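Human:
I keep going back and forth on a fold encoding question. Comparing notes only helps if you start from a blank page. Show me how you would write down a chain together with its backbone fold. Write it directly below this note and I will take it from there.

Assistant:
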Amino acid sequence: MKKIFFLLCFLFYFNVHASNKFDVKLDKCVDGDTAKFLINGESKTVRFLSINAPEIQHDDVMEEFYGNESSEYTCKLLKRSSSIKLQYDPKSDKFDKYGRVLAWVFIDDELLQKKLVSKGYAEVKYVYDDYLYSEELKSLEDIAKKKNLGMWSDYTVSNDNDFYFLLNKYYVFVIIFIVIYIIKRICFKKVWFIFFLCYNVFRRSVMKKYLFVVLMSGTLLLTGCDSEEKTMTCTRSVNRNSISMDMKYTVKYSGKNVTKIDTVEKVVSDDKSTLDFYKSKLDESYEDYKDIKYYENEISVDGNTLTSTTSIDYSKIDTDKLIQIDSSNKKLIEDGKINIDTIKSYYESLGITCEK
């Protein structure tokens, strides 16, 4: 019983002590929700409990909308106050993960967090329990949002389930997808990545949302966007002097670049010497390519039919080697790639019919 009584007394003492206010002196302003105070003669970084102010520019962190205004307002209030007191919350940790003191801040006996939230210089955030003043802060935040104060200057008050609210909230997202669809360069992975990377930075201001549109559209246009792989089929048939030839070229491409070409050429003749002649010529023409990676060729003869199949993976092959073997490849290859329109024109100049 004595142990239980002692424990209860200890908890009571801790809660009373945690709720007591104590005097501190301002050492240095930091930003809208952080400052350094002299506590028992030692400088301590204090993170204002239950609120979050927009970031100011520092290190690798970009300035958020209303960040400078919030920082300047907080610093002005702290410097003009005649007394500053801190109060620990009995239901909050005393320090955050960065080692900063977590506390309620009172200036001239008024809660600083209330002043910041009520005027739109900060939002209510990081509330993990029933803290002393959090409910009152939430009410003040709702009022600031409705009045479009400070960081809420472009805030739209509506039901989160309302279609028009969602449309307004993500209108930039909608615009971007419409633009990409129109130019036929849809690339969902890149769009999602850039959207979530940039939207949080530009979410507060209307003007910055327009900047976001320009930034995202420009990034997609400059870097390109791999579209869905498509196929172009090219064919030609020739009958001459009892010899029949059928050629089929299956060209795969993404965007404007050819990624792979699969070729099937068939020669049909009842004259064995004719087939042997064609086979020797084909073997000779492919000899220089046999050691090139991603260039595959196979020639077979079955009865009166010679079949030659070739597969070239242009997304992986060393195109410089192709040019070294045959300089005429320069006409097709530019900057290591083959344009789909270029290969189509080339085939059509040889009397080959192509269909995308």
Q: What stands out?
A: The first strand starts at residue 21 and ends at 31.
